[in-house]
Design a protein that fits this description.
- The complex is a heterodimer of chains A (about 350) and B (about 400).
- Chain A is built from 12 helices and 12 strands.
- With about 350 residues, chain A is α+β, with helices and mostly antiparallel strands.
- Chain A has 2 domains: about 90 residues, Roll (PH-domain like), CATH 2.30.29; about 260 residues, no CATH class.
- In chain A, strand 10 and strand 11 form a beta hairpin.
- In chain A, helix 3 runs antiparallel to helix 8, helix 7 packs across helix 10 and helix 10 packs antiparallel against helix 11.
- Chain A is rod-shaped, with a radius of gyration of 36 Å.
- The longest helix of chain B is centred in the C-terminal third of the chain and has 39 residues.
- Chain B is α+β, with helices and mostly antiparallel strands and about 400 residues long.
- Classes of the chains: A alpha+beta (about 350), B alpha+beta (about 400).
- At the A-B interface, strand 7, helix 3, helix 4 and helix 8 of A face helix 2, strand 3, helix 3 and helix 10 of B.
- Bound molecules: zinc ion.
- Zinc ion (ZN) binds next to helix 7 and helix 9 of chain A.
- Chain A: This is M48 family metallopeptidase.
């Protein structure tokens, strides 16, 4: 038994400071107060603790709380000589940067894969679980937002002749589409050239699009495309997808200031790539629907290509309908019959184009 | 015969903070640089390293504190909390949208749910942190109910809003009382004796100055009402300036009141912290951060100006270099603000509190025995997931 020196001990059982004799024995470090053993620590269990003082503070891996402070430099050096893993805690506490980088990259990659592949898939399944009544309510809520965004004072186009023409066009399309519920089409007096399919089977056509169209077949194509979105429940799927994507991307950069921009950017990129496939499917649906009525889908492509040419980017409001020329080329590959009866008479077509001559509150 | 008095006579002890600026700054810089390549996940390691540093350099009566928390606990807590929040978010989204369709305020209860979660998370995050604080061979720990605390906090929030902020001191006293009554050092129970009235008296001067500033702002807005373009900026300027000046002053008052009300049995604390002292910490930090942002802005401006003269239709080495400089300066601005704020404000206030605190009745600590267990980290993770983990 060798008495090596003295130390201040907090034994982990009470907060009382115990002035102990430190004995460095073959079996370990023994702390003794007035002949009573306070602690016995094997040398390989002893760890240095981070502390403020100049002395050495040690603890044990077997005891999270007990500490011995040693002020005597000679004793501290002797302890350091005997404890092979004295600095192991400091090493363990140092952040494993390489592993953190690796796992963070893996986590980010898996989140991105989830967002790009799994979320759209899951949105499809989740959409199937949403009852139609709730989907209609969602659509009503979104329609309020769309109206607010477009201005127009909450009015819808309501010229009587125009409405009759719209009804006739919608009725032919709905019959061909044979959906459980016919889509409800409404025209808003906004000059933006666009059309939107909302959850719950509501289609919003903007006057700007009507004015841009040159033939009834072009408008029919736009509506058939939107009916495709309704049939595929794309509006609902997209809402679910955007929500899920936002949540998952929000996991990254929990609190790096300004990183919200990166998250938003990622969201936009994912959205766009997702919409491309969805738009192509809606176009294919429109082509089949129009073919059933004996009408061509090429006018829809012509309209899109024309708008892309005029704007250099196509209509980008609310929905992403990218690549008008590409879409026209794809639609050219379809059946495109012309043997069916015209969907509207010239008089009806003229009336439809003037549907916003009078409006009423929605 | 051994006649020990039940409570030992008071012995004075001073708290102290051993300032190692370089070591702390290195922790922050490393943390900032690793935040981006780890997509923010390094924050758990950064927070733990900061706490480990600050705790271990703070002492009472010459005995240092220690922080025993592990970053992995925080990471796991965050992941669990994230998973728990998914159903809550889904419900929130669905009910929110459906409620909007009825044009009703049915989304309010859900807002309440998240508000409630927030208070609950903050309480549990405190329990996590407190129970990883080691001192003289024992740990601090907390019991009490995060749910009960959240209810209490929400009711007080309502009272504060309803009273236009006047109830704030009583809210602070009530919540601090709850937290400290459920905080223990081993077997030694904590408590809080500060009162709302006392905090109100101490802060009343600044509150009146704040009222005067609001009055001045309103008066300015009226005086310049002929030029509405000038009225709003003038009024808003006064209000913002007043808030910037008053916030640190009130924080100083609040911290001192908090220290002086804290009890562990017969152990009590005195504080010499002044509102002015905290104000200078903030002023210094604001000036340094401002200087840093201006310097970064100048570098950015010069780079953009130089780039403006080079043709953009081809990739010249100068163009690439210019964009690299812009990206670097942008990153430095993004990360530098956080580093400087933590270095000058968080560490500065911490040091100011420690160095102005003295204790009496330290002898009672000898009577404390080991008790309590470490709290789970899900609450801390929840606070992080809800973006509530602002400070230390
Ligand atoms: Zn579409």
């Amino acid at each position: 038994m060798t008495q090596a020196g003295r130390g201040a001990c907090y034994d982990g059982r009470t907060a009382r400071r115990r002035d102990v004799a430190i004995l460095l024995e073959p079996g370990g470090l023994r702390a003794v107060e007035e002949g009573e053993e306070v602690l016995l620590w094997p040398y390989e269990a002893i760890r240095r603790e981070e502390t403020t003082g100049d002395g050495l503070t040690i603890g044990s891996v077997d005891d999270a709380l007990a500490r011995i402070e040693i002020a005597d430099a000679g004793l501290a050096a002797e302890i350091a000589r005997r404890c092979p893993r004295l600095h192991a805690r400091a090493d363990a506490d140092r952040a494993p940067v390489g592993r953190i980088l690796l796992w963070s990259a893996a986590a980010a990659a898996s989140i991105l894969v989830t967002v790009v592949y799994l979320v759209p898939l899951a949105a499809g399944y989740a959409a199937a679980l949403v009852p139609p009544a709730m989907e209609r309510r969602l659509g009503d809520a979104v329609e309020g937002r769309v109206r607010a965004l477009l201005g127009g004072g909450g009015t819808v186009c309501a010229d009587e002749m125009g409405l009759r023409a719209l009804d006739r066009l919608a009725e032919q399309l709905a019959r061909a589409a044979n959906l459980p519920e016919p889509p409800r089409i409404v025209v808003l007096p906004a000059r933006t050239r666009n059309a939107v399919a909302l959850p719950g089977g509501r289609i919003v056509l903007l006057d700007g699009m009507l004015q841009e169209a040159r033939t009834p077949d072009e408008v029919a194509g736009v509506l058939a495309h939107e009916i495709g979105h309704v049939a595929h429940r794309d509006g609902l799927k997209r809402m679910i997808q955007v929500g899920g994507t936002g949540y998952l991307l929000g996991l990254l950069f929990g609190d790096v200031g300004g990183a919200g921009v990166l998250v938003a950017l990622g969201q936009t990129l994912v959205d766009t790539s997702y919409s491309r496939g969805v738009e192509a499917e809606a176009d294919a649906y429109a082509a089949r629907l129009l073919a059933g009525l004996g009408r061509p889908a090429i006018p829809l492509g012509d309209l899109m290509a024309r708008m892309e040419g005029e704007e250099g980017g196509g209509p980008a409001f609310l929905r992403t309908h990218p690549g008008g020329t590409l879409r026209r080329d794809a639609l050219r590959g379809g059946p495109n019959p012309t043997d069916g009866a015209p969907l509207l008479t010239p008089e009806e077509w003229a009336a439809l184009r003037r549907i916003c001559a009078s409006t009423r509150q929605a | 015969m051994n006649h020990m008095p039940a409570v030992p006579p008071p012995i004075d002890a001073a708290a102290a903070f051993r300032n190692e600026r370089g070591a702390f700054f290195r922790i922050l810089i490393r943390g900032a640089l690793l935040q981006l390549p780890t997509f923010g996940f390094y924050r758990f390691w950064l927070l733990t390293e900061m706490r480990r540093h600050l705790w271990s350099r703070t002492s009472l009566g010459g005995v240092p504190f220690a922080y025993t928390g592990q970053p992995r606990e925080l990471l796991v807590g965050f992941l669990v909390a994230t998973a728990l929040l998914v159903p809550a978010y889904v419900a929130y989204a669905i009910v929110g949208l459906v409620a909007e369709a009825w044009q009703a305020f049915a989304s309010v209860p859900l807002f309440l749910v998240f508000w409630f979660f927030g208070h609950f998370a903050l309480y549990r995050a405190r329990a996590y942190k407190v129970s990883r604080t080691q001192f003289r061979g024992l740990r601090f720990w907390m019991d009490g109910s995060g749910l009960a605390y959240a209810v209490r906090a929400i009711l007080w929030d309502v009272a504060v809003v309803a009273s236009l902020g006047l109830a704030y001191p009583w809210r602070a006293a009530s919540l601090e009382r709850y937290k400290m009554a459920h905080t223990s050092f081993g077997t030694l129970k904590g408590g809080f004796t500060g009162t709302g009235a006392n905090l109100f008296r101490r802060g009343a001067v600044y509150w009146l100055v704040g009222l005067a500033a609001v009055g001045l702002a309103a008066a300015l807005a009226f005086a310049t009402a002929e030029q509405p373009s000038a009225a709003l900026p003038a009024g808003a300027g006064v209000a913002v300036l007043a808030a910037m000046v008053l916030y640190p002053l009130l924080m100083g008052v609040h911290l001192r009141w908090q220290v002086e009300g804290t009890r562990f049995g017969a152990l009590r604390f005195e504080s010499r912290l002044t509102a002015g002292g905290v104000f200078w910490i903030y002023l210094k930090a604001a000036l340094i951060i401002q200087g840093f942002l201006i310097a970064a802005g100048i570098v950015l401006g010069i780079t953009v100006a130089v780039l403006g003269d080079t043709p953009k239709d081809q990739f010249t080495p100068g163009l690439v270099l210019g964009f690299a400089v812009i990206a670097l300066v942008y990153l430095a601005m993004l990360l530098g603000f956080g580093v400087l704020k933590r270095f000058y404000v968080d560490r500065g206030v911490w040091q100011a509190v420690a160095d102005t605190t003295t204790a009496s009745g330290v002898g009672v600590l000898d009577t404390a025995a080991a008790a309590g267990a470490p709290a789970g980290s899900v609450g801390a993770g929840l606070a992080d997931a809800l973006d509530l983990s602002g400070g230390l």
